[in-house]
Amino acid sequence: MSVDIDHWTRRLAALAEEHRVPGATLGILRVTPDSDEVAEAAHGLLSLRTGVETTTDSLFQIGSISKVWTATLVMQLVDEGRLNLDAPLLDVLPELRLRDAEVTKRLTMRHLLTHTSGIDGDIMTDTGRGDDCLEKYAAGLADAAQNHPLAATWSYCNSGYSLAGRVIEKLTGGTWDAAVRKRISTPLGLEHTVTLPEDALLFRTAVGHLSEDGRNVLAPVWGIPRSAGPAGAVVASAADLLRFARMHLCGGLAADGTRVLSEAGVTAMAAHQAELPDKHTLGDSWGLGWERMGWGGHRLIGHDGNTIGQAAFLRLLPEQGIAVALLTNGGNGRALYEQLYREVFDDLAGVPVPHPLGPPDEPVEVDVAPYVGVYERASIRQEVLVGDNGPVLRVSLTGPLAKVLQEQDVDYPMVAVAPDLFVCQDPETGNWIPATFYQLPSGGRYLHFGARATPRGA
Q1: What b/e string do you get for 102-122 counting C-beta neighbours within 10 Å, with b at 16 or more?
Q2: What residues does each domain of the chain span?
Q3: Taking every annotated instance into account, which residue ranges of this chain make up the domain Beta-lactamase-related (predicted)?
């Protein structure tokens, strides 16, 4: 049965309007032994200021889905015998210096790809627009805090992917951007994929929108620093993102049969590598670059992406050869994703998409006193307080990220789900975000919120 794109165009429009998403594109891919089916839909505006209409060939920032592209580049280098995932990075970057000398000696590429390095993950230092931006960024990590002991837990780490990008540069002799073009975009025939803003200007390209007093306003800046490129700077159409996904569904082959990645590399990227302390926010485990999700007994891989006012969602169901991409530029993109994907995967594959964790039907009594305190890492300060109406998680941006986003502190009301698990309601969107409290064997106490492990202060 073919994909009814007229139906999904209507559903995209209706749900985007419901969730105040200015513009969005949806792509659905189904690969069969005989042929590929690709269906695309577009809705709304790329910019509320200019009124430019969204089309299916429009480019959006795919954000952290870019990490899967970076991981793919790494695995190509593994295929070529130029990189060992478990060898010290010092073998490739002898100049590498981290604050912890022992971590410097033991850090491997596997730690970076699986978010287990412990390097403070949201260091957004802008090291300029030059081709040496990642070299400068890597040197700056000498001052980075160690968020948790090496391999002791899982915490989402943008910094680690920028460092992985620098490794790619050392081994390829060019920039990360050039490696994406030469090693992924060209063999896959991606004509609507870029990594630099000056190239994005040549296409119909979305701008981000932030919420202000219940309305969408243009984001203050368009993109993230170039030094964060390997963690989140790919800009693409939904169709190009699906062509990338197709390669992973088809054992590393492009549509024309070109070998982009070995079948072993594809399998390794999707395989279980690390457990997540919080199994409600993203997936239940992590691969080499990919999120891993279990939906109703079915194994999916995918990734989300969030930049300044833009959000992207990619899910692959390998057992049925299905991939779905959704790109948005503001509003409640996550709520749109949850509703739309629930309908798409039920209709096309009979696979149930789990509902997000929310407050329990019956109140759960938990003593919050042991969790009251300050939890802090680079760019983020989180404080658990007891307010007049119950516990509250106050989140503050600090450092360079605060200067870019210029956001005020946010108070998230907390509702207990289990003795060590709460859900916190976003006052702007109403979305519920899990907060997990746990302790490492070494004694360190952590709050896992927003996919990051944040250590408790003294």
Answers
A1: ebbeebbbbbbbbbbbbbbbb
A2: 1-356, 369-455
A3: 10-333
Q: Tens digit of pLDDT per residue, the chain (458 long)? A: 689 999 999 999 999 999 999 999 999 999 998 889 999 999 999 999 999 999 999 999 999 999 999 999 999 999 999 999 999 999 999 999 999 999 999 999 999 999 999 999 988 899 999 999 999 999 999 999 899 999 999 999 999 999 999 999 999 999 999 999 999 999 999 999 999 999 999 999 999 999 988 899 999 999 999 999 999 999 999 999 999 999 999 999 999 999 999 999 999 999 999 999 999 999 999 999 999 999 999 999 999 999 999 999 999 999 999 999 999 999 999 999 999 999 999 999 999 999 999 999 999 999 999 999 999 987 889 999 998 889 999 999 887 666 665 568 899 999 999 999 999 998 888 889 999 999 999 899 999 999 999 999 86
Q: d(Cα 450, Cα 380) in Å, to the nearest integer?
A: 11
3-state secondary structure of 437: strand
**Quick one: fold of 1-356?**
Beta-lactamase (3.40.710)
Task: Write out the H or E segment, with its range, that includes residue 223.
Answer: none
Asked if 1-356 and 369-455 have one fold, the answer is: no
Per the CB < 8 A criterion, the answer to whether 23 and 206 are in contact is yes
152 forms beta bridges with: none
Q: Which residue has the tokens 């997000």?
A: 356
DSSP secondary structure letters along 6-75: HHHHHHHHHHHHHTT-SEEEEEEEEE-SS-EEEEEEEEEBS-TTT-PBP-TT-BEE-GGGHHHHHHHHHH
> Cβ(416)–Cβ(358) under 8 Å?
no
- Joined together, the tokens standing for residue 122 give 């949201």
| 64 catalytically annotated | yes
What's the CA gap between 381 and 286, in Å, rounded? 26
3-state class (DSSP) for residue 307: coil
Q: 304 near 231, Cβ under 8 Å?
A: no
CA distance 316 to 337: 14
Q: Which of 2, 35, 58, 64 is catalytic?
A: 64
Give the whole-angstrom CA distance, residue 183 versus residue 166.
16
